[in-house]
Amino acid sequence: MILEELVEKLRKIREAGFIKTVRAHDGGVGNTLESLLEIKENNIRLPDTGEIEIKAKRIESNSMLTLASKSPLPRGVNKILFRHYSHVAEDNIRKLYTTIYGSTVNPQGFRVVFENDKLILQNRNNITAYWPTGLLLESLKTKANKILLAYAETKGKKGSPNEMFHYIEAYLLAELDLDRIKKALENGKLKFDIRIGADKAGKRIGVYHDHGTAMRISKQDYPELYEEHCRIL
């Protein structure tokens, strides 16, 4: 498939109107588009563009896009942060769930700032935690350096078997840029979520569980991270 064929497929999908989900799940919007494009996985290789990851979002949703999940270094530092900053939540589970910005210090005393070749996780106890800039950018590019981002109107209850999607917009994004990432972080658009707690059920109930430190951004601000972005639908 070449880019022109992909665009033509997307146009036909748009013209088809609302289409019933192929999967009753929050991710149904992406699964349905993959099915319509006849893609087995969430990526496609175009000879004139290379490998592209497919992302689809509900146009009215305020949910954030996850760019990548990567714990800071040195290895094991999240456990140290958990010991120092976690609290017992209402469900009686000890947790460290916090959203961290580059534009301001959050209520738990965290902030992320670029210093030389590192992204530093500042904290009140001065625990050393950081991401090497090169490694972070490499991780982001591996996951999302070229993206087809599609938006869909919806009908029906979110995640239900009766939800329907009308794919109305699509954008091709390429070449994540470090300066743009820094700007988004400093402006408070790019955020880091630490999500550490304990499993509520199963064999590991009550056991420490790091759900990953996720980099997130709103779907409206996402294209600003790329050097190249153009609307194809």
Describe the structure.
The chain is α+β, with helices and mostly antiparallel strands and 233 residues long. The protein has one domain: MvaI/BcnI restriction endonuclease, recognition domain (Alpha-Beta Plaits, 2-Layer Sandwich). Helix content is 22%, strand content 39%. It contains five helices and 14 strands. Strands 1, 2, 3, 10, 11 and 14 form a six-stranded mixed β-sheet that branches. Strands 4-13-12-6-5 form a five-stranded antiparallel β-sheet. A hairpin with a 7-residue loop joins strand 8 (118-122) and strand 9. The longest helix has 13 residues, at 3-15. The model has no long low-confidence stretch (mean pLDDT 89).
Which descriptors apply to this entry?
six-stranded mixed β-sheet; 233 residues; 14 strands; Alpha-Beta Plaits; five-stranded antiparallel β-sheet; alpha+beta
